[in-house]
Fold these 4 entries.
Entry 1:
Amino acid sequence: MTLIEVVVAVSLMLIIFLGFFGAYVASADLVRSTSARSGALFLMANRMEYIRGLAYGSIGTVGGTPSGSLVASEPRILNGITYTIRTTVAYIDDGANGAGAGDYKTVKVEADWNFRNVSQSISTVTYVAP
């Protein structure tokens, strides 16, 4: 009778500890994923602030339309994670004013990274007027 009680007790404890271990692994994974996303947000915000500090005429990508001083794509490493930061600049024509093309520019900054062999991406957009 005692041996059966010990086997049942050990089995119950094993099931409980496996549940705790699974919850620990899932929460650690969530923390790493959130940290990677926060790093991407930091890099994008840093890039946007840099762009907002530029003169209107120099906001554009090297070799792009509009032409400017920004690099279209660059790799960045933060906390051991490799991000690809892409910047896209385009002219926007506001048809309401009838002034023609290039009334203002739209700037899109994207961050791509891999987490557990799954590609993740996030982007932000701002508008820049002369």
Entry 2:
Amino acid sequence: MSDWTRTDFDVRRLAPEETREAAGLHERELPHEFLTRFGTKFLARYYRAFVESPDAVALAAVDARSGELEGVLISTLDTRAHYSNLVRLYGPALARAVGLQALRHPSLARDLLKTRLLRYARGIVRSLAKSPKSTQTDDESPESPAERVGFLTYVAVSGESRGRGIGGALLAAYERMAREANLDRLELVTMTDERGAGPFYIRAGWTYAGERVSRSGERYALYIRFLED
């Protein structure tokens, strides 16, 4: 990955031993994200699942001199396969971390029950019911396969390191890996208010594709990146 090197920072794969540091960066820079409320231990395990998954990407931007972590990106190359394996391999540990945080923080428990628990449960059931490597739906024939779509899960850049092109370099590295994996396009969602990063993604070449409302009532903006040859 030497061609991802910049003069003052390098982009490379996130190492397993860096997942706790990545979780801390996530907590500092994405405090509004719901998963942040589950705590460092949960986030470190969540990031490790991306590091170890053959169907996901976990990237780090590190200072070229000090080696300090300045930015992280996690995303999928095969979303269904990744989350199926995440549930199977990491589900119990993640569930324990969520349960402990909910016990410690009643407000989190209330919000979890009210807005997320049913959606998470349905997702787990779908993940366990599907073959991890199956990308074909019931309505598709072998002659007309589904588009291969990756999903950008999170990008976080340290506040003092912004403005140096780190976020753009992480995106470019992910897009390169997605092309090498023969994906057709990438998708992401971000908040529609000032906490969202829509203008950043537009500048990076992504296309706004409308607003979406989750089952828990939250509004998100959908962005798409088409991967032309």
Entry 3:
Amino acid sequence: MAACPWNEAMSVGVPALDSDHRCLVRIINLLAEVDHGAEARSTVETVLETLAMYARYHFAREERLMVQCGFPASQFHRAEHDEFTDHIRGLRLRLAGRATPDLAKELLDYLTQWLRHHILIQDMAYTPYLRGARGSAEPAAEPLDLADRSHGDARRMQA
């Protein structure tokens, strides 16, 4: 059973962003399947690595969209993204090679809480601006080329 199930209350009304959020939910929910055994370390490391890469992709897309639609709190929102990226980077360093099912549960709890708060509170704050800029904002939600470093600074690309 998913620890962090997707529901329509999490929809920000932009199919590309909703798809990204569903993917983040699926990545996080992989931790709910960790049992006691050798797979715990591998699963936790894989989830952290995948989450770091996918969050980078999603955050760049979301930030581009917020700027395009004139969301006045986009810098604060980006700071939230940066804090998350830094936290995941720190967890990857701290847990490297010694993840256990208990750490997987701790990580699952943290990620579930963070994602729910971030989508339901932080992301919902920009939805009125998206509705107002629907025609001009949609192209900003197009897929990104992660090889193009113009979508974020070098520090964030290292996440």
Entry 4:
Amino acid sequence: MNARRVYSVALASTVAVACWACMMPAEEGRVPKSTLVIGIDVSGSFRAHYEDAINFAAHYLYGRLNGLGELRTPSAVFVGSVGGERPGEAKSFQPVHAFRDKSVDEIANILRELYPPEDSFTDFNIFFDRVGTLIKRQGLILAPLDVVLFSDGVHDVRSTGAASADVYAQIDVGPLEYLSRNVTVRLLYASPTVSVNWERGVKRQRVRMWTVDAPVMSRWQEQVDPDSSIDGRQGLWKWIGDNVDFRVRSRRL
């Protein structure tokens, strides 16, 4: 066997082993890479739900970061605001370090401090654009991505005078489309009508959409057992898994 053939066989064997390793399940104790991005609506239209959303977001972050119940622990977490004092105003994202090793109450206080409900507009397009830039800059392309929006889902910018369907057609999730084969946008606290408008009106191809209406979200505290420790509130973590982190099927292209 000549040297070239030996090299070819060795290369083929290496590729085969690499492909086999890719198909093997993750080693025990290792967490598959995934990214969680949370957006907090800080516009005036969301103030009616703001406090309840902050309290839930604190529980949600705590549960996800600590892998409570069957919740998946993300390998990267970023939290930012959805809103602005003027149209097109970009906002920064806080990394996981701001929330790691904090209690639920401490996380809630940090969220209130960083994201007070004082902005005038809700522009989802600038938020999605910033998420896309963030994921690329951090080298997180291809990792499963969850974008969780705590918002009433009302798109304020450039929507005056437009018909309802046209307003939601203006929402552009394009910057998220090719970041990963598994990208899910989850809208929490919208009205049933707005949720339907997001599901039907927001144009998308790869991006998966999941909405949980405000009347459903308002009942999350019923799952909290005050007599159990925060880590032991299995009813809450299961409720989150069943209702918020529901695994959405991809759309047929």
